[in-house]
């Protein structure tokens, strides 16, 4: 029981390494090592476990602490805005977090079953951690939120690894350092080889942060990112429709730019229902990228981003990776919507491959809401796309950890792709992220404002943009096979 409680506390401690805690404590102490230290503690607990079942329970407890603390904002969307009864929303949130905790549990069970009691266990630990995080981000459409690699956004030196290995590779490196620290804690700190490995991993990550994998193309463009701050409780009320429309028209008029970007479903209408005078108002100073529902050729409607010129010529991107339960009912779960009232919850997914949208000599690759959690999917638009633009509405989650965590995710996407990431959100965080992962500018959340920035398009490919997650997965599998060599080839070792 004590070890399970320790694992739970370690999982909760891991969340302190993610946003927004990096901003709370930045002036006094760096928080990016927290997830690595939390993993080092988990490695020690697994190392002392006597059975695979015990290791799985410890992994489950660690995951429960991490996800209950880190993604409990799901409760807000279900209860406060989804209309679900609080007890049912609390139970649903608990079950969701326990589902996510199954992946650290799986890693723990496999670790104890396969470990051989040598220093190679460090490789097995890191490899299993990376592989189970990738599995969590893939299985059943995936939910990679709080993957350890996201915590290593700048100023962490490990952020540089993202341009080569992506977020799962960064998680592998963090877990490898954690395993080395845990092994030294258990067997003695006087291990020059382990210390040298840690220094090399940190140092090489720092050097990779200095690499400029992509090059500027064209002239910088002026972009106005609008943050309407329209309350979620009012957004879909037909009587309040003029509130949304007037808010964005006023912001567009007051903050002219070559490109004006509105958040996800900023206009709570179908695109063909938006009055032409509203469209003309939004494009008075230049093009506009508008978050709005659009009809599809297959019937139904899609969550869209419409690029509109002053001549009202339109081209569109439609969201490909939909949110289960929020944007469509998974097969067999239509009953869920008897307990929750979620507007526009039956979207049609967009085509798997879509052309980047042309604008002023640049090519824009939009992504909508949590699509930017799936780094490999964003690579389909490269190398053609020169700018990335995320349109989000995280008002569903209230004033919670969701908004700063989502911005931190965008930081890793910018590093992985070597592109500027622009974010227009309803309530926050509206921001511009540079290709090195540094947040160049951001609006305070829950304010009605516009962020006007100069965005530089870029061309070229990072190693991650060329290989996607393949390189990180090969390294993780290779680490596991190296650790298991004696079991696989007992005579040769």
UniProtKB/TrEMBL annotation:
**Matching InterPro entries:** Apolipo_AcylTrfase, C-N_Hydrolase, C-N_Hydrolase_sf, LNT_N
- Its primary localisation, in coarse terms, equals membrane
What pathway is this protein a component of?
Answer: Protein modification; lipoprotein biosynthesis (N-acyl transfer)
Keyword Signal applies: no
Q: How does it sit in the membrane?
A: Multi-pass membrane protein
Domain CN hydrolase residues, every copy: 226-457
The UniProt transmembrane annotation reads: 27-45, 57-76, 88-111, 123-146, 158-181, 193-211
Example GO molecular function? N-acyltransferase activity
Instruction: Tell me where it resides.
Output: Cell membrane
Q: What is its EC number?
A: 2.3.1.269
Gene3D superfamilies assigned: Carbon-nitrogen hydrolase
Q: What class of enzyme is it?
A: transferase
**GO biological process, any:** lipoprotein biosynthetic process
List UniProt keywords, sorted A-Z: Acyltransferase, Cell membrane, Lipoprotein, Membrane, Transferase, Transmembrane, Transmembrane helix
- What's an example GO cellular component term for this entry? plasma membrane
Please name the HAMAP family in this protein's record: Lnt
Stated role: Catalyzes the phospholipid dependent N-acylation of the N-terminal cysteine of apolipoprotein, the last step in lipoprotein maturation.
Task: Say which family it is in.
Answer: Belongs to the CN hydrolase family. Apolipoprotein N-acyltransferase subfamily.
Q: What's the protein here called? A: Apolipoprotein N-acyltransferase
According to its UniProt entry, this protein's organism is Sulfuritalea hydrogenivorans sk43H
Task: Give the lineage.
Answer: Bacteria, Pseudomonadati, Pseudomonadota, Betaproteobacteria, Nitrosomonadales
Q: Gene for this protein?
A: lnt
